[in-house]
Amino acid sequence: MDPGRNEICDLTEIILNESVDTDIQHRKSLRRPKRVLHFSDGDLEEYSEDETDAPPVNTTVTQVDPKTLNWLPWAWYQTTSIGSKVLDGCDYVGEWLAGFFGITAPKYQFEINEFYRLQALESEILRKQDLEMGGWNEHNKNNLVNNVQ
């Protein structure tokens, strides 16, 4: 179009490529959503092919009979088996020792406990003062009526 010409463009004859949209709608109509989540900014449809529905990976360890192994695989099997058991034992003993010596507690836990104790004590004192004063405090002090004779 020329920028100098002011013609009205008739767009009623333009055919949009809607095959992509209809193909997506057709595929969505074949699948039923597992669940539909409604949010303030729109809806979310979850289908069963999502990654959360994937079957768990089989991670079972097959038992090896050490009697059927040759010398080198047998030595490797025994080394890893004993090493694994020793590592588990060291982990258990280390956790027990850390608990016994108090290493697992935060470094300044006593300060944190003292802060909470003082905060509770202060709130208790303020509550008792409020009960004693019956609503009278420094702000209401000027509202007293003095009978001067």
TrEMBL record:
Protein name: Protein FAM177A1
InterPro entries: FAM177 (IPR028260)
Pfam families: FAM177 (PF14774)
Domain of life: Eukaryota
